[in-house]
Design brief:
about 300 residues, alpha/beta, binds adenosine-5'-diphosphate, binds magnesium ion
Length: about 300
């Protein structure tokens, strides 16, 4: 089972090192390379380059598929309830495994509350909208509160200590640390198949702080894209739901306009997944809107942030 370039068969460590040095450090990069380019860049025979590219494509299952095959793959996707029927409805039933879902919105729009709620709800049995699974919570802003987990678990009648035991928490200190955590996750999730949810709250804050301004945009984007693709891969390979959050400035005037303008850049625009815009409404009400998901209808719903968690 090939999951990284180190698993490619019949290729020596020397060649693997050459590939990495030439910038081909992922299966994705290899899968889309041309044999000629790869051969020259890595200084390896053309036949070896062809073999490596074929293996990378097989590993990623890149080939023509019939619509029926696609349907069967999609039927395997499972869903986690958000706690709000309206929000679940908007998302086509809940948060999907094998998919990265981004919640973006202004401060206080409910991103972190949703992350807490989902790390509890993933533990529910399937008949109650969960996956009987565990969660990994990567916190970059220090806003995780165990008290919220307790409240939410209690409200669902779950064993509180049990719920807290099934959430693996880590605070990411900076971008390098955040990336290293995700690098290491591969090992954790392959050892513990009960992990069904990975949260990064927020995925962008360290990147914005460390690479401020226009002059750093290209580097920031490159590093962030790689990080996001790695998360996407974990979702796809291990049938996990990945949640990322992204704090953006309030632009009420833009809510009905082009959201990619509203988020102040194209940060996560090129990465596959579902993007959900959150906005404050009156009191504890919040508005959610799905942005450019090809299979979901347009529209928006209202949900509530309560002491017990996310509700209608
Ligand atoms: P952000 O989008 O910035 O991550 P949060 O998810 O942290 O926003 O949402 C903060 C909001 O969540 C608060 O303004 C409040 O409305 C709600 N909230 C937080 N804790 C509680 C609680 N214990 N009871 C009820 N509502 C809460
Ligand atoms: Mg937050």
């Amino acid at each position: 089972n090939v999951k990284s370039i180190n698993d490619l068969s019949g290729i020596s460590q020397t060649v693997i090192n050459k590939l990495i040095e030439a910038g081909y450090s992922s299966l994705e990069a290899l899968a889309v390379a041309s044999p000629q380019d790869l051969s020259i860049a890595a200084g390896i025979p053309l036949s070896t380059a062809q073999k490596i590219i074929k293996e990378a494509r097989d590993a990623l299952d890149i080939r023509f598929k019939t619509a029926l095959e696609i349907k069967k793959e999609r039927m395997n996707v499972r869903k986690i309830t958000t706690g709000s029927q309206a929000l679940d409805g908007l998302l086509g039933g809940g948060i999907e495994t094998r998919t990265m879902t981004e919640f973006f919105g202004e401060f206080g729009s409910g991103k972190t509350q949703l992350c807490h709620q989902l790390s509890v709800n993933v533990q529910l049995p399937p008949e109650k909208g969960g996956l009987s699974g565990k969660a990994v919570y990567i916190d970059t802003e220090g806003t995780f509160r165990w008290e919220r987990i307790e409240n939410m678990a209690k409200a669902l009648g779950l064993d509180i200590d049990n719920v807290m035991n099934n959430i693996y928490y880590i605070r990411a200190i900076n971008t390098d640390h955040q990336i290293a955590i995700v690098d290491d996750l591969q090992e954790l999730v392959s050892k513990d198949p009960s992990i069904k949810l990975i949260i990064v709250d927020s995925v962008t804050s360290h990147f914005r702080a460390e690479y401020p301004g226009r002059e750093n945009l290209a580097v920031r984007q490159q590093k962030l894209n790689k990080h996001l693709h790695q998360l996407t891969r974990l979702a796809e390979v291990y049938d996990i739901a990945v949640i990322i959050t992204n704090q953006v400035m309030a632009r009420p005037d833009m809510f009905y306009g082009d959201p990619t303008v509203a988020v102040g850049g194209h940060t996560l625009y090129h990465v596959p997944g579902i993007r959900v815009q959150l906005k404050k409404s009156r009191g504890n009400r919040r508005i959610a809107r799905v942005v450019d998901a090809p299979h979901l209808p347009e529209g928006e719903v209202v949900f509530a942030l309560t002491e017990e968690g996310i509700r209608d």
